[in-house]
Amino acid sequence: MDRSTDRSSIIDPSIGVLAARIRAAERLTILTGAGVSAASGVPTFRGADGLWRQHRPEDLATPEAFERDPRLVWEWYAWRREKIAACRPNAAHDVIAAWSRRPGCRVVTQNVDDLHVRAGTSALVRLHGSIWELSCWNRCAAQPTPWRDERVPLPDGVPGCPQCGGLARPAVVWFGEPLRAADVDAALEATACDVFLTVGTSAVVYPAAGLVHDARRRGAFTAEINLETTPASSAVDVAIHGGAEAVLPQLAELL
Ligand code: OAD
After folding, report:
1. Active-site residue among 55, 116, 128, 241?
2. Left, alpha or beta for 159 (phi > 0: left; psi -120 to 50: alpha)?
């Protein structure tokens, strides 16, 4: 193809602007959502094939749903664990992991898939928990913190707490539940930065969706990378339309 008509070779000028800001930044914070893992094959929540198009959150992702039918909730999580286990981190995770090793970089994710962890991201705040961790449904005193269990499939349909023998639940944040205070504090702390980048999130679920606005109020240069326009798009300094797995490597090359 004639290069002059090959649009894939034209880099969005906003990417250059953002790269210059990241290069100069001493403190960089990146907020990620399901879109970052989309190229790995992990389903998003609100897209055309999103999970919330096929399922009602109140049936599967609330404490009431678990109380009503733990087996059904575990079936859904077991299906997601199986799907995610077959996925690998993509170029977006790799770039973020490399940046996370530079001083002053913090990464806050809403994703429970742990693909950032597998890519080697440091200074990671997992706002919504991890699908690879379980916790005691009864919050028993002997098992106050989540434990890791990466077995696929889990041996029992409905796993139990190793201490009290009661039900175990996925250690993720469900609708109607508070986030862990330490995670919220760390995320808010990370809004004190020079550049705040929000990537692959529909920017509708709070408190995560409020972070970019906090960062802006605190003087950060703000940017978004997303395939679509979101409620954050009009609030940020630079909105880049594109896949995270393509845009982040382009940015990394310019640094
Ligand atoms: P959503 O599914 O709501 O949004 C995914 C976003 O990623 C959309 O705005 C897409 O346009 C964008 N996207 C898709 N593919 C992309 C790609 N390759 N590159 C860049 N962007 C892409 O997911 P989240 O915003 O993460 O919470 O959802 C937030 C929370 O809502 C989740 O953590 C989950 C969900 O309900 C809980 O379960 C508590």
Report:
1. 128
2. beta
What pLDDT score does 47 carry? 81
pLDDT surpasses 90 at 226: yes
pTM for the model stands at 0.95
> CA 126 to CA 187: how far, in whole Å?
9
| Averaged pLDDT of the chain | 94
* Atom 9 in ligand 1: residue holding the nearest Cα: 202
Mutate-to-test residue for ligand 1 from 84, 111, 227, 229, highest number of ligand atoms within 8 A of CB: 227
Distance, CA of 81 to CA of 220 (rounded, Å): 36
In this structure, which CATH number among 1.10.10.10, 3.30.1330.10, 3.40.50.280, 3.40.50.1220 belongs to the domain 1-42+88-128+179-255? 3.40.50.1220
Q: How confident is the model over 192-219, as pLDDT tens digits?
A: 999 999 999 999 999 999 999 999 999 9
Kindly give the number of the ligand 1 atom that is closest to the alpha carbon of 61: 38
**Domain locations in the chain?**
1-42+88-128+179-255, 43-86+130-172
Give me 14's structure tokens.
């906003």
Is there a catalytic annotation at residue 93? no
Compute the distance from residue 155 Cα to the ligand 1 centre, in Å: 30
